[in-house]
């Protein structure tokens, strides 16, 4: 077997394309490590990815057989250990969890979600707008998602910082992963306790009262999944979009003038620099030959959406229409993202509202000098420093 490509190295965040090339050199499925001593197959071929995602008979999402093979302190367990929720279930259990999940989000009206995003953007711009400079990762994208999702699930703004801190540590998968998982878990338990005592017009309450009668434990794990899957990738999507837009004056001017929709920039990032770059984890129910590779049971098979975008950009480049959404960032099959429209609305409204407030955003450093967070799963900036004309949102006549 080939030497595993080590996706846990710091170099992966700095230059993922080099690692994707090494994986593709092995064929449609490459051999990698997600953490030291934790191997996985990584799918880098689009047809292989589609074949896997549409074959629930061969592949399972249940990681419990794999979990028995890894150390309890493995830093990626926070992202991969089994929980009774939509992501890690198959068959009837998955259908039941997904129904409750989708029904709860269907109660979130688009205009209400838009107003929540606008309120959060206005609050954050009010904090850094007068300074004329900001970090759009730590000062905008991440706290924005904490405010929006914390609000959607039913806690006051004062609790949003706990959500952001715990998820950030867990997602990176390094030495702080276990600490982050514990912090995030404590946040979720406090949320469930608050909503069990007093319902409200929020997703947690709707899950607790759903007709499929989820237990309190099941609701806890649906919330654990949904907050993690919503907050981190969406924050990374927003910051990745902003980094591409602000560093491209021609692109930025068409967006701020309204002649080109923000959704074009969002789609471009989802295709070529997707925020959740390696996930969609499956396990062969039995050892099987797949696209010329003998895949062992109880070994993770990871879909590399980042690699698919990298090779797609190399092969097709500008041939894609700006609005072409044929990328696989939303996954496919029975486990495809059920709330992509909510995510798109949050991301597009966040970028649009910010650029309306601050139409002259300028990067402090060139895009190729930006630093990226470590971790095998995400494509996430550590910082995005910008400068702009100082602005105070509460000034008369300054509303976007």
Overview of this protein structure:
The chain is built from 16 helices and eleven strands. With 400 residues, the protein is α+β, with helices and mostly antiparallel strands. A hairpin with a 2-residue loop joins strand 7 and strand 8. The strands form three sheets. Strands 1-2-3-9-6-4 form a six-stranded mixed sheet. The protein has a three-stranded antiparallel sheet with strand order 5-11-10. Strands 7-8 form a two-stranded antiparallel sheet. It is globular and about 60 Å long. Helix 8 packs antiparallel against helix 12 and helix 9 crosses helix 12.
Q: Beta fraction of the residues?
A: 5-15%
Number of strands: 11
Low-confidence stretches: none
Cα end-to-end separation? 57 Å
Which structural class best describes the helix and strand composition? alpha+beta
Radius of gyration: 21 Å
Average residue pLDDT: 90
Strand line-up of the largest beta sheet: 1-2-3-9-6-4
What spatial form do the alpha-carbon principal axes imply?
A: globular
Tell me the major beta sheet. Answer: 6 strands, mixed
Range of helix content: 40-55%
Q: How is the topology of this model organized?
A:
Blueprint: E1 5-6, H1 10-14, H2 16-24, E2 29-35, E3 38-43, H3 46-53, E4 59-60, H4 64-67, H5 77-80, H6 91-106, H7 110-128, E5 133-135, H8 137-153, H9 160-172, H10 177-197, H11 203-208, H12 216-246, H13 249-256, H14 262-272, E6 278-284, E7 288-290, E8 293-295, E9 301-304, H15 305-315, H16 340-357, E10 362-363, E11 385-387
Parallel strand pairs: 1-2, 3-9
Antiparallel strand pairs: 2-3, 4-6, 5-11, 6-9, 7-8, 10-11
Helix pairs in contact: 7-8, 7-16, 8-9, 8-12, 9-10, 9-12, 10-12, 12-14, 12-16
